[in-house]
Structures are given as structure tokens and as C-alpha cells.
């Protein structure tokens, strides 16, 4: 196949950071979506400055030729009741369904250190320690995934640094213990690389179970300082551990990733999602770098 069934989107975290509102605090919603469109993307995920009134949001996006493709959901299956998780999940499904999205994303934040500024990310990650904890966690994901499936959406679970699903071994167990009809993967090459995994091997292994793709690159020198200086995930982001595909400071093999996607049956979105400090990395400039790089590699 070629890339006819692929759409290119972008995450607003390049402009404004949900976990650290001071990053990009000066950037408005209007600037964010206008620059997304100017850079040449046709879809986006949802950020903290996006209006939640469906009519207002649709009008703003329609004016710019954009559509919502996904939104992060904070699963808390390890720390809150299933009923609470179902209520929050269903509320977000209502919104995404109204916006025409087909994917609901997110990762397990209940026992995660990803949002803690002082906890070293490589030492404080969330854990599932017992068979019972795994069973409870994956049972909840299956139930939520079935709710999404019955409404025409896919639950695409995001492996993420600082969480209980971070490595390929953990991802394998998650996918093995969940129903492939109800639970899919939100693949992210940057998080696999950060976790010490080969993102090319990971995509080759998981592409058949992947419902959404995030692409970002990693600055190896900053990642080394995460190890050497015992940095938290948020500190690593502020220091610039992530960058966009096409930045010569990155180290991930994107031609190999696109080759896997091209030879697969993947249908859906590829989303640029490289969180950086907008005061150091101009969002429009870096979005355009990535957009040109994607076009050069894929023709789209």
C-alpha cells in the first residue's frame, strides 16, 4: 500500500503543555490551531486551552480545515474504582463522538510519576506487582474498550514513561491480557526509545494492534542526563529531551518506521507530538520542520 489511508495530525502540546501550564502559557488557542493549519496539518488532538463547547470548537476548526482525531484520557484503574473510571471515560467519549473522532487515547496515571517534578522518572515508575493487580487493570481496560467499540471508537492505550506500561515486556503483557477487539495501542516511538527499547522493532511487532501513532524524536544527550542526573520526566521535557522528526539533533530512524507503516494495513492518523518548551523551540517553526520531513519521506 501507499500512504493514501494515512492522515497527518499534530498535538497542541507543542504550543501549550497540559502538565506544565507555564510552558506556552502565553500561546492562545487561536494561535495554536491557526499555526497547526499554517504548517499543513489537517487534524489535531485536544489541549488544555481548547474550548469544550462543541459548536464553538467545531467552528474554529472548520475555519482552518482541522478535525479532532484523539484526546488523552487519564485512566486511574490502579487507584480509583471502575465506576469512577467509566464515568470519566464515558464523558470524554461523548465529547469525542460529537467531534467526529474515532480514537480515545491516554495512559494509566493512577500510580504514575510522570507528572511529579521531583521524582526521577527511571526510579519512580508506576508498577503492577501482582497477578491480581494485572487482572484488575486489564479487566477495566477491556470493559472500557468494549464501551468505546460499541460506540464506533477505538481505545488506543498509550505506553508512557513513568507509568506501569513503559517497556515492550509490559506492553506485551498488556496486549496479551486484553481483547484485540476492544484494546489497541497508541504507539509512540519517543517513549519506547526513552524506555530503552528499539522503536523500529516495537512498531514492527505492534503495528497490527496499533490504532493511533505518535511520532517524536529524542535528543540523546538530554536522555543521557536523565540517567546521569536522575531527572524527572517533566524536568527532562523542560530540558528538551524530545524534539520533532526532521530535527538533526534527533536519533530515531524514521525512514525505517515509515517503511513499516507503508507495508502494513494501518489506517488512521500519524500525529506529531513532540512536547518542548515553546520559549526555546518556536512551535510553528518546529511544526513546519516536521511537516516538511513527513512530506519528503511519504509524499503526503
TrEMBL record:
Q: Which residues cross the membrane?
A: none
Enzyme Commission (EC) number: 4.2.1.44
Cite the GO molecular-function annotations of the record.
myo-inosose-2 dehydratase activity
Q: What range does the record give for the signal peptide?
A: none
Gene3D superfamilies xrefs? Divalent-metal-dependent TIM barrel enzymes (3.20.20.150)
Residue ranges occupied by any Xylose isomerase-like TIM barrel domain in the UniProt entry = 37-288
The record's keywords, sorted A to Z, are: Lyase
Keyword check for Transmembrane: no
Q: What class of enzyme is it?
A: lyase
Name assigned to this protein: Myo-inosose-2 dehydratase
**Native species of this protein?**
Dyadobacter sediminis
Q: Read off the lineage from the record.
A: Bacteria, Pseudomonadati, Bacteroidota, Cytophagia, Cytophagales
